[in-house]
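lol ok so funny story. i was supposed to be doing the assay writeup but got distracted and ended up predicting the structure for this chain instead. priorities right. anyway since i did it might as well share w the group, maybe its usefull for someone
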Amino acid sequence: MPVHRITHVRTLENDAATTWISRWWPTLYEADPRASAYQSPQWVTAWLHQLPASSSPIVMTVADEGGVRAALPLARHRTGATHVISALTPYAEYNDLVGPGARHPHVSQALATGLDQLLQDGENLELAHFPDHSALGHALDGRRNWETTRTRTAFVPLPLNWETLPGNLRRQHAKRERRIRAGHSITYARTRSTDELLHLQPELERLHAARWASADDHEQPRPDWGTVLSELTDTTAFIATITIDGALAAAQLCLYRGTTCWSLRPAMDPGAARLAPGHLLLRRLIDDLTSHGFTGLDLGRTAETNGQTGYKEQYQPRWSTARSFTSVRPPRPDAERAALAASSA
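and the output, tada:
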């Protein structure tokens, strides 16, 4: 018979959460080899320092007889009289429980029950982007009072054998290479030190703004990516670039842990679109990662558009799903009785 394990869920906020994250998060992360770079102490600390004055950090922990088994970093955001609890790291492609017990059912179920309790206490919660393998994501999926949405994600296993791609994809890649090599000088590089990373960050932001300016939400405060990258350093992040005829044409911020790399914040010069600098960079990044022993490149969440899905399909990714959850407040007893009375009238 299965052994019943007694679990304790604890919620810390404000200074207590900050202190806990600073002291214990690195230990949990190191004890969880399947946690992604989006859960690294550097990444979590960087966004902890980016919290505006109207927000406060929260950390929920789950412990059993073996000690703390996993934790989830969150933040309370206040807009007037409205409070919303969501992920501490808003720009992460994935969020999840972290710790040696993060994938154990009794741990994830305990945390899901703790989140339910927050909802019953009147909190509003938005929990975004749990990867398909997340035990907490599975525990929340289909649970009463939670609405679930799904987004496709793309993961490219490495090495990628270009010669085994379908013929139409090989021809598209070859056509781009011929076009770019016809009279153009191209250079691929990626940063190898923290100084290089920080030096290149403003240029990446310039390209990103040029490419995505129309899609930016100007009402939201923009993060200080220079400060974020100074926390990440070259031990967690690098920027890969392509220059065409001496001008920066594409750049991509990547996080990494072990032999897995996560693509984040791609940027390219709209003026060089005819030469497809994004594809040019991605092909060389894949070959570079392969030569250095990486086994996977995660291209992250994917909008259901021809532009995004078609772009990523050209690298034969393994498609998966990320789940996001929004709390649905249970009706008050008096409102529920009124609804029943109205339906029976």
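Residues 204 and 251 are 6 Å apart (CA to CA). The radius of gyration is 22 Å.
back to the writeup now i swear
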